[in-house]
Write a structure and sequence with these properties.
Length: 260
């Protein structure tokens, strides 16, 4: 069965470290779209972060799933639809108890992020430095926690034995300690399944590409889950096949085979 819904992670999957989509990948995505497939960007990026990628691809309609499945963006109308929120204050308290010195960034969909003192960056643009009482006062769709001086491996060891009730969390690509938190039960997979049902696509006609910890559920969800070359072992194990890296146009390799 030819794929009818293709979910694409962004960073490290179609977008390289310079922020470029290669001509081969761009052409392969356009060919699949022209054949009638729904191309869905499924990313940990916020709405604000994904819009530049939508422009690179030239998409003027369709759907993007942002913030690890917590927010949906209608590409035709620009409508931003939060799919789930959570109360951040209890989660922040729990993380602070586990690793003192943690800093936070909390999404305000379509607006930016409110951040705590010490969070990396200069706080300009769409980032708003707030006092602690305001930081956790209202629900959020996505929270990023960062510990300076702690490695990803150390964070993973701690999180594996310290569950946090009421939320879903994943590790970021980086080697240091970045944790992305969304509401319980929310993932790229949950948002894709909701969209698949709305579009009337058969479960057997789904494909997903990804390279990160936040892509594991999505790769397992798809009829064909494709991990990028260079992905971590747990990501590769969740996939049905492994293609080349983003530098090797791995997405194009598979799409060209599926849409000959």
């Amino acid at each position: 069965m030819r794929p009818a819904l293709i979910a694409l992670d962004v960073d490290g999957t179609i977008l390289d470290s310079t922020g470029t989509i290669s001509p081969a990948v761009h052409t392969a995505i356009a060919r699949a779209r022209a054949a009638g497939a729904h191309i869905v960007l499924s990313t940990g990026r916020t709405v604000l972060g994904v819009r530049a990628v939508v422009t690179l691809l030239g998409f003027t309609d369709g759907t993007a799933l942002c913030s690890n499945g917590a927010v949906r963006l209608n590409l035709a109308t620009g409508e931003i639809i939060p799919l789930a929120t959570f109360e951040p204050a209890p989660v922040m308290d729990r993380l602070r108890a586990m690793l003192p010195g943690v800093t936070f960034s909390l999404e305000e969909p379509g607006v930016g992020n409110r951040v705590s003192t010490g969070y990396p960056g200069d706080g300009s643009g769409t980032r708003r430095l707030v006092e602690d009482h305001e930081l956790g006062a209202t629900p959020t769709t996505r929270m990023i926690a960062y510990w300076n001086g702690v490695t990803k491996a150390q964070l993973a060891e701690l999180m594996d034995v310290s569950p946090i009730a009421g939320v879903t969390w994943t590790y970021d690509h980086h080697s240091d300690a970045w944790l992305t938190v969304v509401a319980e039960g929310i993932s790229k997979a949950s948002a894709l399944e909701q969209l698949r049902r709305e579009l009337g696509v058969s479960p057997d006609a789904t494909v997903a590409f990804g390279d990160g910890h936040n892509d594991i559920a999505m790769l397992r969800w798809a009829a064909l889950g494709v991990a990028m070359g260079g992905a971590a072992a747990d990501v590769r194990q969740a996939a049905d096949e492994v293609t080349g890296s983003v530098a090797e146009d791995g997405v194009a390799t598979v799409l060209d085979r599926l849409f000959r």
